[in-house]
Amino acid sequence: MIPQNHTNFIYIWGNPLDFSLSPFFQEHCAILAGKRILYKIFRGSAREFLQLLKSGRCIGANVTIPHKIEAAELCDELTEKARKAGSVNTIFKENGRIIGDNTDGAGLVKWLKIKGADLERCAILGNGGSARSIAAALSEEKCKITIFGRTEKGWEKNFGGFKNLSEWENDVFTISTLPFEVKGKNLINIGYSSGNISIDATMMLAFQGWLGAQRWFGETVSEETFARVTLLHAKAQSNQKFILNLAAKK
C-alpha cells in the first residue's frame, strides 16, 4: 500500500490542459477516500515526464493528447488493454516498474452498459487514438464494429472494417470521437471543450478515472460517487464559462 504519512503526486501529461476536469475530480475523490495526493498538470518533454514518474513521491499519471502513443514507449510494461489500444492514458507503478494501461475504452463501455446501449453493432467516427481504444474495448464485448475516417491507418482491421467518413449513414449505434459535435439518431459525442462537455463524455471521463484510481490506490470511493463528483465539476466548469461570457458582454 502507498504510505500516507506524506503527500504523493499524480500527474497528467498533455496539451492543452487548461480546461481539464481530472485534477478537480481526482483530488476530490482521493480526499473522500482518505488519500493524500496532489494531482498536477505537466506540459514538459517526454524525458522530463519520465523523471517525474521515477520519483518516489509519484504514484502514477494520466496521459492525454498528444502524448498517448509516446507514453507507451516510456513504460517498462504494458497491460493487455494498452497493448491492444496501442496507447497509454493511465500509468501506475508495480514493484518499482512503470506500467502503462488504457482505461478510455473500458470507461466508455461501462457507461454504455449502464445506459443500456445496444452493443451488437457499432460505428465509430474518427480513427485517432481514442477511437482505437474504444474499438479495442468494444471488440471484447463481441461488438461488430465499423470505423469511419478520412484515411485508413492500418489498425482498424484488427477490430472491424474501415470506411471513408463520407460513407457513414447513421444506421447503427454510433460513437463520434471527432473534435466537433455530430448530430444524428442513436449517436453520442465524446469529444468536448471547456464548458461544453456532454453527459456521455463526462461519464466516460468518470469511469476511466475510477478505473485509474483502482490502479493507484487499490481501493477508492464507489463508481457512483466518482460519477457524481465528476458531474459536479463538469457542471461547475460549465457555470464558470457562462459567468465569464456574461462578464465579457458588459
Number of domains: 2
Q: Oligomeric state of the chains?
A: single chain
What's the main sheet like?
Answer: 6 strands, mixed
How are the strands of the biggest sheet laid out side by side? 2-1-3-5-6-4
Annotation field: number of helices: 8
Number of strands: 11
| SS-derived structural category | alpha/beta
Helical percentage:
40-55%
Gyration radius, in Å: 18 Å
Query: According to CATH, what is the class of the largest domain?
Result: Alpha Beta
Task: Describe this structure as you would to a colleague.
This protein is α/β, with parallel strands linked by helices and 250 residues long. The protein has 2 domains: 8-104 and 199-247, Leucine Dehydrogenase, chain A, domain 1 (Rossmann fold); 106-189, NAD(P)-binding Rossmann-like Domain (Rossmann fold, 3-Layer(aba) Sandwich), CATH 3.40.50. Helix content is 41%, strand content 21%. The chain has 8 helices and 11 strands. It has helices at residues 22-32, 46-54, 68-74, 80-85, 104-115, 129-140, 199-217, 223-248; strands at 8-13, 37-42, 58-63, 77-78, 90-94, 97-101, 121-125, 144-149, 160-164, 174-176, 187-189. It has a 6-stranded mixed β-sheet, sandwiched between helices. Strand 7 (121-125), helix 6 and strand 8 (144-149) form a beta-alpha-beta unit. Helix 1 (22-32) crosses helix 7, helix 1 crosses helix 8 and helix 7 crosses helix 8 (223-248). The termini are far apart. The relative contact order is 0.14.
